[in-house]
Amino acid sequence: MKGEETSKICNMCGKTFDIWDNQENFSFDHCIGYGSTHDLHRIKIDLCCQCFDKVVDWILPQCKHNPMSEYPTNGK
Ligand SMILES: [Zn+2]
Predict the structure, then answer these.
(1) CB 42 within 8 A of CB 32
(2) Is the pTM of this model over 0.85?
(3) What are the two backbone dihedrals, phi and then psi, of residue 54, each rounded to the nearest 5 degrees?
(4) Given this model, what pLDDT does residue 75 score?
(5) Which residue, among 8, 16, 7, has the nearest Cα to 44 in the 3D structure?
(6) Of residues 30, 31, 49, 51, the one with CA closest to residue 40
(7) Distance, CA 47 to ligand 1 centroid (Å)?
(8) Where are the domains positioned within the chain?
(9) Is the pLDDT of residue 5 over 70?
(10) How far is the CA of 14 from the centre of ligand 1 (A)?
(11) Ligand 1 centre and the CA of 28: distance in Å?
(12) How many whole angstroms from 74 Cα to the centroid of ligand 1?
């Protein structure tokens, strides 16, 4: 089985990534500049599928512009 060479851990729930989590590999890595109350920090978040869903379920209702769209099934 592949995909186990690096075992990431979900920042939110502490779970070790399984094969599905590794496949989705939802991560966010950003150095925060001025304009944020967290300026001059770096945030690096890895989320498992379940926690990613929680974050999306939390964010979506607050969005004026829907960031979600259908999975592109045709074209590139
Ligand atoms: Zn998690």
Answers:
(1) yes
(2) no
(3) -60, -45
(4) 63
(5) 8
(6) 31
(7) 5
(8) 19-62
(9) no
(10) 6
(11) 14
(12) 31
Tokens of 62: 């607050």
Question: CB within 8 A of 23, min separation 6: which ones?
Answer: 3
Report residue 54 as tokens.
């929680």
In this structure, the number of other CB atoms found within 10 A of the CB of residue 48 comes to 24
Span from the CA of 36 to the centroid of ligand 1 (angstroms): 25
Q: Which tokens go with 47?
A: 């989320």
* SS3 state of residue 2: coil
24-68 confidence digits (pLDDT tens): 999 999 999 999 999 999 999 999 999 999 999 999 999 999 999
- The answer to whether 10 touches 27, Cβ cutoff 8 Å, is no
